Amino acid sequence: MPKVRNVRTKAVRSCINGNPYQTKKPNNQHTDVISVKKESNGCLKADCDIKSDESDYEEFDATQYKLSEYESTRIENIHRNKQILQSFNILEAKEQYNFTKPRTEKKKSFDVGLKRILNEKIPLPRRVSLRIKNLPVSYTDLPPIEPSRQNTYYSPRRAPKLSMQAINISEDHGKSAMESWSKLQNSKAELLSNNVKKFQEETLKLDIKYAAKVTKDRIYSIAIHPSCDKILACAGDKSGNVGIWDVNSTQGKSTEVFLFSPHTQPINCLKFCPTDISKLYSCSFDGSVRVADFSSQQFSEVFSIEENTDRFNYFDWPANKSNTLLVASSNGNVLLFDTRTSCIEQSYEIFQKSVRCVDFHPQNEHLFAASSYDGKLATWDLRNLKKDNNKFLSMFQASKTTSTCFFSPGAGDKLLLTSQDDYLRVFNVDQVGKIDSPRWQVKHDNFTGRWLTTFRACWDPKTENCFVCGSMERPRQIDMFGCMENGLLSHFSITSEEQTTVASVNAFHSSQNILVSGNASGKIYVWM
């Protein structure tokens, strides 16, 4: 049975296109004739007179077909709608804005620093079916499983004195680089006005200009050299490595990053000495405090405790006393010792749980703040501390554990607390050192999970009321906050196309508008 075209559809389509009496004939020479009859109900009936079996389609004479009243009205409506659209010049406007966006050149990827080592996968032997090969199955019994002892993780501590020989750089190049670092001059931090709007305008100009893989593992701590002559970004990672990145280096991409291994466990705090910026102090979970001296090119052990007993979480210097160091321990004590003699002066028990952070008041050498694992934040006076039964000046209890607490730079009249109950809090500090309920607080997602370093909100040393914190939001960004006089927190974020991961730890330059941030893969971003 040959195929018959829909007569009505073909005729209507030809009418809409403008000529109701033109039809396209097939190329086949053998044609069939279709006779159309109009019945009493107005419908059309097509009768086919097949003249050739070779034809797939039948020819229709459009001159014998007339449109019904409904079809004529429909075609008139279509033409009228087209005229209305043309009067609105919609098609011209569409052509005007229908253009392809020009291709923008892709930014060159940052290929600086350490290279990721990929482990080669060993192909496993292919599993073969013994049934398909018609081989007998061996029913030998498996050997009994012997209970094995669980191996305990133990990493011996490094020697008390180590040469600052980089793992990834030649010895000659490392010496010349450290000699130039030891000659850098300190630039004092000049506090800007407390205008939050001005801080926002300056910070929103920042964009990622440099990025490099500085450490092998996850970054736990970060620091930036206070000099204006050179940008030195430092990071401590999970394995006890310290990476120093000479951002302004002209020696080539492969020699900008220097990797050292002074510790064997995570480095939770990394700071430059306030009176001698050629010394970089670090404390680790291995229970030791070390100093990297660029002048002598050595890692020296400042102080340590018995191995595998307690771990050090944080440290700080009192105001105008760089020879005294206060260290936060995991057993709830703070240790006060002299860096010149490496002897403990005092050990005070201030919390029942681990002390997570300590920070001295920038103007009062006796006043410090500490936060604990059980969510406590307290201020203390060193002169009132004893070996046991110590009384705090004031205390605040959070619902979950805390991570860091910092006094505001300059006057120190504010205290910033980061806790795992998804809040950032800022307290007013009076002249005695007491705090009350938080004056500023904001809901913030601080749940970083297992594979990211916990967030540590920190102040911009150039301001009195603005601070930075990592963010879990997408697209990836860094959150900025400013304390307003009316008790509200101004919040805005900075982002960049190059930032594709969470920047857990951040640090501002002391005198320049520069921000460094680190992620869980050992990479540092420099915002300028």
Question: Segments where pLDDT lies below 50 for 5+ residues?
Answer: 1-5, 20-38, 40-55
**Which percent range fits the helix content?**
10-25%
Q: Characterize the largest beta sheet: strand count, sense, and whether it forms a barrel.
A: 5 strands, antiparallel
- CA-based shape: globular
Count, helices: 5
- Number of strand segments: 31
Instruction: Report mean pLDDT, rounded to a whole number.
Output: 85
The helix-and-strand class reads: mainly beta
Ends distance: 79 Å
The radius of gyration is 38 Å
What's the structural blueprint in terms of helices and strands?
Elements: H1 7-16, E1 33-38, E2 44-49, H2 69-87, H3 90-97, E3 161-163, H4 171-182, H5 196-203, E4 208-213, E5 219-224, E6 232-237, E7 242-246, E8 257-260, E9 267-272, E10 279-284, E11 288-293, E12 298-304, E13 312-316, E14 324-329, E15 333-338, E16 343-349, E17 355-360, E18 367-372, E19 376-381, E20 394-397, E21 402-407, E22 414-419, E23 423-428, E24 440-443, E25 458-459, E26 466-470, E27 478-483, E28 489-494, E29 505-508, E30 515-518, E31 523-527
Antiparallel strand pairs: 1-2, 3-12, 4-31, 5-6, 6-7, 7-8, 9-10, 10-11, 11-12, 13-14, 14-15, 15-16, 17-18, 18-19, 19-20, 21-22, 22-23, 23-24, 25-26, 26-27, 27-28, 29-30, 30-31
Structure overview:
This protein has 528 residues and is mostly beta strands. Helix content is 11%, strand content 32%. It has 5 helices and 31 strands. The chain has helices at 7-16, 69-87, 90-97, 171-182, 196-203; strands spanning 33-38, 44-49, 161-163, 208-213, 219-224, 232-237, 242-246, 257-260, 267-272, 279-284, 288-293, 298-304, 312-316, 324-329, 333-338, 343-349, 355-360, 367-372, 376-381, 394-397, 402-407, 414-419, 423-428, 440-443, 458-459, 466-470, 478-483, 489-494, 505-508, 515-518, 523-527. The strands form 8 sheets. It has a 5-stranded antiparallel beta sheet, with no helix packed on it. Strand 18 and strand 19 form a beta hairpin. The longest helix is centred in the first third of the chain and has 19 residues, at 69-87. The protein is globular. It starts with 6 loop residues before the first helix and ends with a strand.
